Amino acid sequence: MRRRDFMLADPVRVNADGDIEVSARPGLGVELDEDAVRRFRIG
Q1: Secondary structure (3-state) at 32
Q2: Distance of alpha carbon 25 from alpha carbon 43, whole angstroms
Q3: 3-state secondary structure 1-43
Q4: Which Gene3D superfamilies match (predicted)?
Q5: How many domains does the chain have?
Q6: Three-class DSSP category at 27
Q7: Is residue 31 within 8 Å of 8, Cβ to Cβ?
Q8: pLDDT value at position 19?
Q9: Alpha-carbon distance 37 to 3, whole Å?
Q10: Residue 6: per-residue pLDDT
Q11: Range of the structural domain that residue 38 is part of
């Protein structure tokens, strides 16, 4: 797992040219892994 992916449900896809492949998902095209995010919650 790459550093950029540790809080994402699915990793960001990068093609052989180093370009990020755009997702068809709405918004920014990423979904947070709620369990990973909870580890950094304060309070």
Answers
A1: strand
A2: 31
A3: CCHHHCCECCCCCECCCCCECCCCCCCCCCCECHHHHHCCCCC
A4: Enolase-like C-terminal domain
A5: 1
A6: coil
A7: yes
A8: 93
A9: 14
A10: 85
A11: 1-43
User: Burial letters for 3-41: b for 16+ Cβ neighbours within 10 Å, e otherwise?
Assistant: eeeeebeeeeeeeeeeeeeeeeeeeeeeeeeeeeeeeee
* Residue 14 backbone phi and psi in degrees, to 5: -120, 130
pLDDT tens-place string over residues 1-43: 677 788 888 888 889 999 988 888 888 888 889 998 898 889 8
Can you give the pLDDT at residue 9? 87
Q: Pick the closest to residue 8 from 28, 37, 39 (CA basis).
A: 37
What type of residue is 32?
A: L
CB contact at 8 A, 29 and 23: yes
